[in-house]
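Lecture 7, part 2: worked example. A protein chain together with EPU.
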Amino acid sequence: MEKIIVNGGTPLFGQVEISGFKNAALPIIYACVLVKGKCILENIPAISDITYSFEILSGIGAKIRMIDKTTYEVDCTDVEPGKSEYDLVRKIRGSYYLLGAEFGRFGKARVGFPGGCNFGVRPIDQHIKGFEALGGRVSTEGGYIEIESDGRAVGTNIFFDVSSVGATLNIMIAAATAEGTTIIENAAREPHIVDCANFLNTCGARISGAGSDVIKIKGVSELHGCTYAVIPDMIEAGSFMVAAVATHGAVKITNVIPKHLESISAKLEETGAIIEEFDDAVMVTAGEKIRRTSVKTLPYPGFPTDMHPQMSALLCHAEGTSYINESIFENRFRYVEELKRMGAKIKVDGRTVVIEGGAPLTPAPVIATDLRGGIAVMIAALATPGKTEISEIKLIDRGYDDICGKLRQLGADIVKVTVPDEDEELKAN
Ligand code: EPU
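Predicted complex, written out as structure tokens:
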């Protein structure tokens, strides 16, 4: 079993380069299933969600070739629908994009229910509603979601009940090669929706309006291969921004699109940090003190839910009471108990986290409860003098490319260690 040991209390200084965006790379990788031909994907992050996705696609007949650390050739010419491995699919959430991709290419799909971080109920009713609107007959039995149709997805008008990143992407992917035109209303507007639309258009799709709440997709009969670079990871960037402020450091964060970071920059400025924007970088300098603030998570361009736990970790160090209202997921609060172990005065009241900041934290053994909860306890540990031990770090590896190496480059004292698995030890005894 691996753990991370953080000897905190050292300000982060220097420059760090951000990797490609997990939540854009995932739909793009699965969208390759629509393409008969080779796609060269650049700026792919080295994280386990991507490794699993390549394993899933290889398992259904795709040929994946690594060109260099961040570039892959993906050839889905010979893939077959309905063949994905149940146990692999359930390891990650992004695997649900295989549904839209198989349905778009073959008019049918069969994929196991996805996994992903546990935030309470994570329904997929809007995905199913969209597939049905496109002419799919959807059944959910035996742990699988199965779509059948009369041959091909057929374009239509779809109005989503909630703004869903996953449903918007899944339906956009399926509709790209559907017969006729699809219009998605109340579409999610996140930068990864735009990125996936740009990828599909580079392959010959006819998608307009991505980035607004109405997306128009004129179905085409076939897509061709292309070379495409995924956008930088705004959540990885935001996490480093928060870490710089929490440790009273100064960090230049490169390979970013500053526009995608605006809601995060604005909140950090409210806490007293200074943010300078460059063409493809931001410089974050901590203020003298960390000031309290209130945050409400919202769909883009609002403050991202994927930055909520990191902000909580920061605001433990602010003077006064801060509030974070989580409006996207009903239960994204498991990390709160871990911050409490470190002495944070933090509680959950309904869907709001209340943080009485200013009391110094102390190191404690903690776990990564989920991907962003894991990075939040890491930020808390970086800002806390002494040795904090973080377990269950596989969840952090799902979405952060070489997190320990990048933090060490900024002066952090952080190592990943392998320790004997306690269960294995018990068995041996
Ligand atoms: N929702 C429904 N029905 C649906 C789909 C969603 O009610 O069919 C609800 C959800 O319960 C939630 C809201 O709609 O309340 C938004 O969910 P969304 O579908 O946008 O989220 P997702 O597709 O499951 C993706 C990211 C998450 C990120 C959210 C919000 C991927 C693989 N996952 O999840 O990323 O938090 O969008 O931006 O892209 C992460 O990276 O740590 C992460 C959890």
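The longest strand covers residues 2-8. The radius of gyration is 22 Å. Keep this in mind for problem set question 3.
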